[in-house]
Amino acid sequence: MKKRILACLLALVMLIGAMPVMALAAEPEAEKPASFDWEVSKSKTATALDADGSTRVTLSLPSAEETLTSDVVFVLDGSSSADANVVKESLKLLDELKQAAKVNGATVNVCIVKFKRQAFKSDWFDLATNFEDIEKAMSTKYSGGTNIHAGLLAGKEALEEHTNVSASRKYLVLVSDGSTYLYSKDGNWASDTPFTRSYHLDDSYNSFSGGYWDEGYYQPNAYPEVNVPRPKNTSDIAAWQEYLKDVEKRNAESHGDDYDYHCNYDLNFNQGKPSDDFKPQPNVPRSASNRDMAFYYADQTWQQMRNAGYNLFSIATKDDSAGAGNSDDSHSFMNYLNGGQSLNFSDIKNEIFYAVGAGSTVEDIMGYDTSNGNNYNFDLVPGSLILTVGGQSLASLRDGNTYYFGDADVSKTKYRFMVEYTFANDGTEKFVWTINEHVSNFSRVQLSYQLRLRDDARTSTDGYFYTNFSATLTPKDSGGKTGINQTFDRPRVTFGLGDADYLLPILNLKKATPKLNTRDHFAYVQGYPDGTVKPAGSITRAEVAAILFRLMDADSRSLYYSTASGFRDVDSTKWYNTYVATLNNAGVITDSRTGYFRPNDAITRAELAAMLAQFAEKKSAAIYFSDVSAGYWAANAIALTANLGWINGYPDGTFGPDKTVTRAELMAMVNRATGRAPESTGALLSGMKTWKDNADTARWYYLDVQEATNSHTYLGAPTETWTSLTTTPDWSQYE
Question: 146 Cβ partners below 8 Å, 6+ apart?
Answer without folding.
Answer: 77, 79, 115, 116, 117, 176, 177, 179, 180, 181, 182, 324
